[in-house]
Amino acid sequence: MDVRIDPHPLAGSVDAIPSKSMAHRLLILSALCTGVTDLVCPSSSQDIEATIACLRRLGAPAARTRDGLRMVPVTVGGVRRDARIDVGESGSTLRFLLPVVAALGCGARITGHGRLSERPLAPLDSQLVSHGVTISGQGSFPLLVGGQLQPGRFSLPGDVSSQFASGLLMAAPLLPGTTEVAVREPVESRRYIDLTIAALATFGVTVHARRETGEEGACVVFSVPADARLVSPGRCVVEGDWSNAAFWLSAGALGDEPVSVCGLDPTSRQGDRAVLAALSLLGARVGRASGIAAASREALRAHAIDVSGIPDLAAPLAAVAAVAVGTTRLARAGRLRLKESDRLETIRATLRALGGSATVDGDDLLVEGVSALSGGTVDAAGDHRIAMMAAICAAYATGPTIIRGAECVAKSYPGFFEDFRSLGGLATRQGA
């Protein structure tokens, strides 16, 4: 599907969609705990649906309710052995469920799609193997998982996906002994591990963290005791998503009228709530009150921003930087190469296609501000965040923009273009 965007500023307010990051975690833990859990999650996405489908395959029924899902854990009907599960294009689903399947000891045949087979599983896979698991087919699909994960100490570098540590921590309460996950410093995307710790606390499991210094240098050790048990809270709410809200707040930073997003927790463990601070650094006017975050344009100026811990903010921040005075450096962004697209390259290509100026310098993205973007044709490259970034840029361009493959927004935000129109955006579907 192609979408044509005609220039028109955005203004007004939208409700935040449920956090995809938290939804994955709460869904998985509700499938592993004792007791039924009512999960308040009023909307979904392709990635969330992938996790739900996989949990059903493993033996955890999920029934739709008026405001979300009722999750019945695998302890009720029993775990299904050697299940065939399809994680779609969801890296979170794969990296979280791989340790969980190993901890359940049920075996599974895991398939996936898109660029997912190119996204790294090392060293998570080798750590699992060293603790009693068999994995065949690494680097391609299907992955055949067998064996029984044993408790102990798992060692991970801090500059790979935080999802590795999160998956191990969610699996830890299923194991018969103390589990330690040692992550070498610096721990990039620490906020995502904190999000997992918060989710585990909701289900009655306390994760202890301490700092150690040894032969391999300093590390943070996350520990789950042997007697940890997952207990259903009965009902839990998936909080609003700061990652996708960042696009609307960035749109506000580009326009004269503010854009606000309702239903965001200002104290959330989500790292991407840093978007307000980042937009402020770029010269936008930001504010928050009573679960509402807002942004509007003031005097946009370039700034250097380290995005190593907030990689999903690179695209919306680049949209603002494209028309800020000076050259913005989005630093330590190398992990963007391993997203749904090589996002360093596709952000650069998108801005250039729209009349902007951007270059890649090692692991940094340099965005040189121009007076205005001209519009043009953008290939979303199968990447939901590229499609959303292009739409936000296009709303403030001087000419129309065509976004090729815009349907990819469904990965995280199926209602994106409906909300775009509700804020005054002019988006027209061009094809099937």
Q: What are the low-pLDDT stretches, counting only 5+ consecutive residues below 50?
A: none
Structural category is alpha/beta
Share of helical residues: 25-40%
Strand content: 25-35%
How far apart are the termini? 5 Å
Strands, total number = 24
Taken together, the total number of domains comes to 2
Main β-sheet, in a few words? 4 strands, mixed
What does this structure look like?
There is one protein chain. The protein has 432 residues and is α/β, with parallel strands linked by helices. It folds into 2 domains: 3-17 and 239-429, Alpha-beta prism (UDP-n-acetylglucosamine1-carboxyvinyl-transferase, Chain), CATH 3.65.10; 20-226, UDP-n-acetylglucosamine1-carboxyvinyl-transferase, Chain, CATH 3.65.10. It has 13 helices and 24 strands. The strands form 6 sheets. Strands 22-23-1-24 form a 4-stranded mixed β-sheet. Strand 6, helix 4 (91-104) and strand 7 (108-111) form a beta-alpha-beta unit. Helix 6 packs parallel to helix 7 and helix 8 (242-254) packs parallel to helix 10 (314-321). It starts with a strand and ends with a strand. The model has no long low-confidence stretch (mean pLDDT 95).
